[in-house]
Amino acid sequence: MTTFKEIRGQLIKSLSSDPSPATAGDMWYNSTSQVLKGVVLSSAWSTGGNLGTGRYNLAGTGTQTAGLAAGGYSPAVAATAVVEEYNGSSWSEVNNLPTATKGLKGFGVQTAAAASGSQAPGPVYGATTYEYDGTNWTNGGNLNTARGLGSATGTLTAGLFAGGYTGTNLTNSESYNGTSWTNAPTINTARRHAGSAGTQTAAVLFTGYATTTSTNTEEYDGSSWTTVNPTTVARDAGLGGGDLQTSAFIATGNPGVLTEHYNGTIWSAAPNVATARNNGAAAGTTNSGLGFGGYNNKNNTEEFTTAAATKTFTTS
Predict the structure, then answer these.
(1) In Å, how far are 82, 154, 170, 265 from 88, measured between CA atoms?
(2) How far apart are CA 17 and CA 62, in angstroms?
């Protein structure tokens, strides 16, 4: 049986009073009340405002109250240049991408974002990066390896792009400084449609399609990728995101409605989404996120909120 020390790397402390502050995952024995306590996360999905244009294979980034959806594919219009912003309750169409694009990935915030890579009909794979200042889109530096369906995280001036597809799955990763891309160490498992979270020098990459749907998780420290504990469910094309390497989420995908949380060590089950989807996009943090779009022209949005609460553990 796995112990708390093996999971968290620390023993359960005996304290005369509850610690303040306490963070998710902390556990202690309160010697005054003689009970075992810990901080757990309570999560829930709720319905948000619909996208104006339902689509899939789109780029998503930003936060729950300032999200961004760019490009994608809609059967009615094929690849699209449509861009929409989310204000926490509704989406509004803003200035289009310079070119209709699908299979791209976004990173950054709503007023300083980028979307890179592409998969055009054909298929033809692209290296273009588009930068957004909250009003207009301009061309940024090209990826060194043209590809679509990769994974991106970080900020406009410190971005990271990994994996992807050009008819075969890729291991390439690259870092962005706001002007140009530099080749970075390769990931261990070639894949497309993976989720990602964190920063340029402290990232996590998870699930995706390798030779089949995957549970593989890798962490990046700015120098190398290391394979760590897998997700509990194999999937690809899910809604993956988070602002920290130690705080990520993956939801839906192929298969289903399942959601998982990552605490920097292990993945654990979280509440299911209401709508099964794949090839959608995500934005926000693990504690306050968005999932939107998806295959079959989905336009619905779901909001994800997590709060920490102290719990008393008892035997049963």
Answers:
(1) 19, 21, 35, 30
(2) 39
DSSP-assigned beta bridge partners for residue 121: none
pLDDT values of the chain reduced to their tens digit, one per residue, 316 residues = 555 545 555 678 898 998 888 777 788 999 999 899 888 767 899 999 999 999 999 999 999 999 999 999 987 668 999 999 999 999 999 999 999 999 999 999 999 999 999 998 778 999 999 999 999 999 999 999 999 999 999 999 999 999 999 999 999 999 999 999 999 999 999 999 999 999 999 999 999 999 999 999 999 999 999 999 999 999 999 999 998 999 899 999 987 899 999 999 999 998 999 999 999 999 998 889 999 999 988 999 999 988 777 888 876 5
Same domain, 139 and 167: yes
- The torsion angles phi and psi of 161, rounded to 5 degrees, stand at -130, 130
pTM comes to: 0.86
**Residue 17 sits in the same domain as residue 160:** no
Helix (H) or strand (E) holding 212: none
Q: Are residues 29 and 133 in the same domain?
A: no
**Please, are residues 177 and 187 in contact by the beta-carbon 8 Å criterion?**
no
Helix (H) or strand (E) holding 274: none
